[in-house]
Amino acid sequence: MRNPLSDKVVNIKPSGIRKFFDIVSEMKDAISLGVGEPDFDTPWHIRDEGIFSLEQGRTFYTSNAGLKELKVEICRYLKRRIGAEYDYNKETLVTVGGSEAIDIALRAMINPGEEVIIPQPSYVSYEPCAVLADAVPVVINLKAENEFRLTAEELREAITEKTKVLILPFPNNPTGAIMERKDLEAIAEVIREKDIFVISDEIYSELSYKGDHVSIVNIPGMQERTILINGFSKAYAMTGWRLGYACGPEAIIEQMTKIHQFAIMCAPTTSQYAAVEALRNGDDDVAMMRESYDQRRRFLLHAFKEMGLPCFEPYGAFYVFPCIKEFGMTSEEFATRFLEEEKVAVVPGTAFGDSGEGFLRISYAYSLDNLREAIGRLAKFVSRLKQEKN
Amino acid sequence: MREKILQIVEKNSRIDLKELAIILGVEEADIVMEMQKMEEEGIICGYHTLINWEKTSVDKVNALIEVRVTPQRGQGFDNIAERIYKYPEVTAVYLMSGGYDLLVFLEGKSLKEVSSFVSDKLSTLETVLSTATHFILKKYKDHGTVLSKKRVDEREIFTP
């Protein structure tokens, strides 16, 4: 029999952290700080609206690009929160999570061999999605001394004749880094000069702890060359509803909609009705969750300081990214030993790119009680390692 | 800061004040001072514990009593409310809008105890016109806390 598989797909490495978490799931009384989704339930009024839509028999497809009602609310939200204007009809597409939007944005924009710049450490899907879109991924290794922000110099150095798209993943998973207005202004200059495009993954935008999130589309001349991606998973604790969206220039959204309609048809109808409620009446829920995350963030940073574990202050998402280089172990060795000896799972920074070596991703999408217990174990482990060293 | 402190201690009055200071990003001394002030000002009125007595061997009966009264000249409802809330078995008294005036929460050891309170003490008060007693059969949620179910983390492991 012939080989039934595509070389392109076979050659994509499976995600490195899967193996690690299989161990966790089999280990009794292990606690995890590894999960990348909110610990809150979707607020009840949002769930209730989803249930109501089912009771009303709204069980059909919606139009391909999404419910008109929802697209209108998305545009109102973007106007309200980041001051950007989009046409709900031509510049907005409702997708199955932000992740689908990333995939189809790349597929809509890339010709074979064109380069996509991916700053790392970052979400693990960008690189495989770029490869599947026949792009050549070009990685920028972000630096701890820049608090894992992307600098204009780093960007300029990575751009070649073939560069088409920059993926801009801020607030960042796994580092928690953000880009402030001045940082965005600096890279925008390079982006305009080199005439490249941006896919801005702003799924964590509502989880910003140093003033309001600033989007790249707020920088002059950037909205016309940016696909803005956001969604409901992180802001409204709606991961399982699988709902996101992309906004951008009509020409790109039109082609993305083409892929979306042939591959997906439309995003889940129930989720779309629930999302309308989220955007209309969910601001207080978002504020409440943001405040909770912020409290946990302060708790962790304080705990790291006490145990002498260096960590820059992250202002976004729900991750902290402490440095463990002083112990002379790789991230994976550290995480494995920590799991075996103290039964706490954290994710090695290398799962998110080579530049994550020497760091750990610790999620604070856990209750303070859980964090207190887990961090107690981390303090014990760290002090043991420090003794071993001496 | 007050509002944030209150939001947290309302749910967890046992929180360590040092930790409270850390998560709010302020000094512990400031928290201690604010808490003291709010106690003095009568904003923080107590640090009670939410107990599900149904799970213990202690027998308790809880009832809500709707009370219609004649307000007194110059006193309104305050006087009569005070006469009612002074009974230790009364756990709460609210002045209500609508079809009745006072809502009285009562806790007793038995049905008999509650009913004799209503017939002997409450309805015999001069200003009380009528009472309607409702016994609580089961508490599902109290003070914002669901009593019956314990929350478990059902998030599945996924990549990334």
Write structural notes for this entry.
The complex is a heterodimer of chains A (390) and B (160). Chain A is an alpha/beta fold and 390 residues long. Chain A folds into 2 domains: 7-42 and 284-389, Aspartate Aminotransferase, domain 1 (Alpha-Beta Complex), CATH 3.90.1150.10; 44-281, Type I PLP-dependent aspartate aminotransferase-like (Major domain) (Aspartate Aminotransferase, domain 2), CATH 3.40.640.10. Chain A is 43% helix and 13% strand. Chain A contains 13 helices and 12 strands. Chain A has helices spanning 7-10, 17-26, 44-55, 68-82, 97-109, 126-132, 152-158, 181-194, 250-263, 269-281, 283-307, 331-342, 368-389, and strands spanning 31-32, 92-95, 115-120, 136-141, 163-168, 197-201, 226-231, 244-247, 319-320, 344-345, 347-348, 360-363. In chain A, the strands form 3 sheets. In chain A, strands 2-8-7-6-5-3-4 form a 7-stranded mixed sheet, with helices on both faces. A 3-stranded antiparallel sheet of chain A has the order 9-12-11. Chain A has a two-stranded parallel ribbon with strand order 1-10. Chain A is globular and about 65 Å long. Chain B is α+β, with helices and mostly antiparallel strands. Chain B has 2 domains: 2-40; 53-138, Alpha-Beta Plaits. In chain B, 32% of the residues lie in helices and 21% in strands. Chain B has helices spanning 2-11, 17-24, 28-40, 78-85, 111-122; strands at residues 61-69, 90-95, 102-108, 128-135, 141-142, 145-146. In chain B, the strands form 2 sheets. A 4-stranded antiparallel sheet of chain B has the order 2-3-1-4. A two-stranded antiparallel ribbon of chain B has the order 5-6. The longest helix of chain B has 13 residues, at 28-40. The model of chain B has no long low-confidence stretch (mean pLDDT 93).
